[in-house]
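Structure record:
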Amino acid sequence: MKILIAISVLMSLLSANSMLEKANEAYKKKNFKEARVLYETLCDNNVSKACAKVAFIYENGLKTDRNSTKSFQFYDKACSLDDKKACYKVGACYDFGGIKKVKKDFKKAAAYYTKSCSKDFSMACYSLGKLYQYTLTSKQNEQKMQDAYQTACDNGTVIGCYKLANYFEYTQKDFFNAKKFYKKGCDQKDTQACFRLVDIYIKELSELEAESLQKEAKSYQKRCDNGDMMACYKLAAMYSTGRGVKQSYRKAKEIFTKNCDKGDNASCMEAYMLIESGF
């Protein structure tokens, strides 16, 4: 009996996979009506990818009337079947509204974003952080906001790095962590994060007395020689501005360029500006 059940399950899986391939092929050929019928049949049989696909077809009106209500229903079912992007889409519906019969509900939005984020869909993590920062604001949600932004940042959504760094800089006055997350964003080519990181570096240098600058220059040189890219950046900035060392745009460009080659995007930006200025 168990063998017969196993065979039946296997045959069902093979049949579903075959139908999904056929639906995907129709979709690629832009035969959206055929694809929709196949996806809906598969969704009825709890194939999460099919539910998400038919939701997308209704959302965008691909060879059918745009139907936000049906789109929401299919995304919701796909989410219940653990499709992480579908959970994000449902969360966005509750977050922003605009779907018939679905009113804004920020707690439900947070719940769907959390489910999506827990499956490493980084945009959901970013949206969750933003929800806790600007809408579901409370002391108890502050740590949740930080965790959500950091997860987004760790999974490649660089605006999560920027938002977290910005929070540390302006709300917490925690410049250590602000620099840490601006640098993480800058290293992923977020120009805005690079500019904020540079501003903090320059501010730190400008606050040092002349005697301290000379001592710091020696410290930065030693640390730079040992591979500390932040120290290299500050040393180059000193040569560029003539603070603590004899001014030398050539030396500044040389250090910025070497640091850039090692992957420091803030240094790349500075080296580019020196080169464009003719140095």
Observations:
- Residues 2-28 form the longest helix (27 residues).
- DSSP finds 15 helices and no strands in the chain.
- Residues 1-11 have pLDDT under 50 and may be disordered.
